[in-house]
# Entry
Amino acid sequence: MHVDTSFPRSPSAASGTAQATPVESLRVCVVGTGYVGLVSGACLATFGHTVCCVDTDAARLAQLAAGQAPFHEPGLQALLAQGLERLRFSPHAAEAAADAEVVIVAVGTPLAHDGVGTDLSQLLAAVQAVAPALPASAVLVLKSTSPVGTGDAVATLLRELRPEADIAVACNPEFLREGHAISDFCHPDRIVFGTDSAHAEAVLRRLHAAQLQAGVPVVATTRRTAELVKYAANAFLATKLAFINEIADLCECLDTQVEDVALGIGLDPRIGAQYLRPGPGYGGSCLPKDLVALAGTARAHGMPLAIVEAVAQLNEDRKVRMQRKITEACGGDVRSRAIALLGAAFKPDTDDVRASPALSLAAALLAAGATVRLSDPKALERARTVLPGAAFFADPVECAAGCDAVVIATEWPVYAQLDLHRLRAGMRGAVLIDLRNLHAPAAARAAGFTYVGLGRGKGGLGETATLTRTP
Ligand code: NAD
# Structure
């Protein structure tokens, strides 16, 4: 492995798309137009590459052909509406691959039905669809998060399907976050290339020339190691979240403030301040399934990962704990209580509700006999399809009208800016359960609420520490 940090990092590498640095253009086929594939394809087109994005979902392709983003991701609609000259969409994988120098596979890799393995059916179908047409000099890049050894299996499959060609298979894991996907893709903290082919690495460096010129470090390693880097990164992030949730629970017993603890430890660069906010557990399409898959891989190799397994279990337990917290705040029983749940997306700035802790809470409250009213700025349509039995409201104040309790489940900025007096005025009860610690407990009490947060001491003080720096 070598780490190449020869270019100084661009000081402007903070947000927005990268400048279209003149790059040696490549013909690229991206298979899968989800959060990763579409963002990758659109950004690579802005870098100067010629990109064809392929998908099997005809409805999605029709939206894209009309310049419509099929999901909410800040900046994506504007990017597509520009009608990027070098970006086109097609249902024909083989045709798109036949003309490509690079084929990027960015399809889903969900948990398998057994609940421990990874379902590679989308990935293998994508490889089989492009294989017959791939030029021998093309590089097949696996961007989907897939277990260690998937690249090896794909290379074997390609040798079977195309014995006359020696097609290079590389792993290039993606670290973008939904809600920041464009900025993260254009200005990543690092790029990981996993391949032992000099040709594949050279092509990947051309593909990412815009970022490399801006000083983004490249970790070049073996394909198997690159595959593990992605899982290890997600496992570490999940561990931080589980850790601060445990500390928050302890804070409630010790009458101490979790935000102050997070501040006090996060300033240590060995720890870092990010991912130290307590919440109702992690969700989304990546962390939950990636932890389970990593734990499964480790067990299959006789090397169980105690930390990873504990974190995954803690996250499951967290849902039950949060439901209990809500129930206690509602007087010990939620039957016949009307509860407004603010947030359906698994995090702010996305409409993705996959494995959303907000929705599992909503389902549990419904099952326990509560009336659930749900609001979200962007994810209502998606929530509606998976949560029959709830009522849906675009406006959070309207959602809370007549309710006994309000639960803040997703960290949308708009929920931090809520006028609590107005919110309270329309309600039947006065309980505010703030699972994201967005509000100062004193302000909530001043608005007439009984306030319940996470890890904010017995009295629910909230943030009390002051941070000063002597210049
Ligand atoms: P997604 O479910 O949003 O999108 C997958 C797309 O692939 C869908 O549009 C689907 O129709 C299409 N597809 C499925 N099979 C196909 C085939 N055979 N041919 C063509 N298209 C096909 O997935 P996503 O969230 O973009 O994730 C993709 C991969 O990237 C996953 O492995 C995920 O773990 C990983 N990842 C996701 C994120 C994230 O934030 N979403 C971040 C990093 C990595």
Notes: The pocket of nicotinamide-adenine-dinucleotide is lined by residues 31-37, 54-57, 60, 93, 106-109, 122, 125-126, 129, 144-145, 174, 176, 178, 285-286 (CB under 6 Å). The first strand starts at residue 2 and ends at 4. The domain at 2-221 is CATH 3.40.50.720 (Rossmann fold). The first helix runs from residue 35 to 47.
